[in-house]
Specification:
The protein is mostly helical and 91 residues long. The protein has 4 helices and no strands. Helix 1 crosses helix 2 (26-34) and helix 1 packs across helix 3. The termini are far apart.
């Protein structure tokens, strides 16, 4: 079985923010997260930024109505690349 390497862009962005705030390299932040290095300031900064990011994502998810019904949308159409549909409106 072949291992698939996937890059977590959200985590990478938080690592970059942490490095910028703590004035260290991205590599050092990654090493601290893995546990290869000890730096409480970097680790706590990363965890705070991650919690803030997660809170913002949850708040946006609550605000946006992802489950609105749309006319003519079936699971088969969702699997295709183009969907032409209009939202259901009250008469």
């Amino acid at each position: 079985m072949e291992k698939v390497n996937t890059r977590d862009v959200e985590k990478a962005a938080i690592i970059k923010k942490t490095a910028r705030i703590c004035t260290v390299s991205d590599s050092l932040v990654q090493k601290v997260i893995r546990g290869d290095r000890d730096n409480e300031i970097v680790l706590s900064t990363f965890m705070i930024l991650r919690d803030i990011d997660n809170s913002m994502v949850e708040a946006v998810k609550k605000m946006l109505p992802f489950d609105l019904p749309y006319k003519g949308v079936t699971q088969e159409k969702l699997n295709t690349k183009s969907i032409a549909c209009s939202p259901i409106t009250a008469n």
